Automatic annotation (TrEMBL):
It comes from Sphagnum jensenii. It comes from the Eukaryota. It is found in: Mitochondrion. This is ferroxidase. The keyword Oxidoreductase applies. Its main location: mitochondrion. Keywords: Ion transport, Iron, Iron storage, Iron transport, Mitochondrion, Oxidoreductase, Transit peptide, Transport. It holds the Pfam family Frataxin_Cyay. NCBIfam families: FeS_CyaY, mito_frataxin. Belongs to the frataxin family. Its EC number is 1.16.3.1. The keyword Repeat does not apply. It catalyses: 4 Fe(2+) + O2 + 4 H(+) = 4 Fe(3+) + 2 H2O.
Amino acid sequence: MDSTSLVMTSSTMMRLPSPVMSTSMMCFSSPVMSSSPMMSASSSSAVVATPSMMPAARTPPVALPCSWTSKSFASAKNLAGDESDDSPVTGKQSAQLTEKEFHAVSGDMLDQLQEKIETFGEELDIEGFEVDYSDGVLTVQLGSKGTYVINKQTPNRQIWLSSPISGPARFDWHGLEHVWVYRRTKAQLLPLLEEELSQLMGKSITLKD
């Protein structure tokens, strides 16, 4: 035999002498019978495995760059709507707010109202119009049309409203929607004021950012 073959059976292993060991052939035991006289002499035949019979090598997994995986994770969060409102007041109700949190959210609301009301008041040139905001109390004078008082009520974690149209109302913070809601009527502070001021001014008034 010109090339070396390693033959393995279930009970014996024979090496056929040759000056050169072939690296292209491997042998393993198999129950399949062979027509070769040498292999049929054994109780279990040996099958010679050639490279074409060997399973293909698996491609190793490719490591993704950290920057790519981070961006993909961030995109997935955005698509899922889980963007990140890290505000500590998100999901809280008025009674759950700390005093610091209450002053933050109620102050933002009153600052926004002051800015928007001053803007439309100057544009409409309302006689007797005046806005004053101090110590958590926002007072809006509309001349003969009436006066609004909107103020913080810290012990109750509420914003109180006195309206010339709807009268008094107390608004609680709803953290999931980020709105102030009057529990008795379910009215929200901004839409209510927009509706009433539009009625008084005879023009559409927008107070939202």
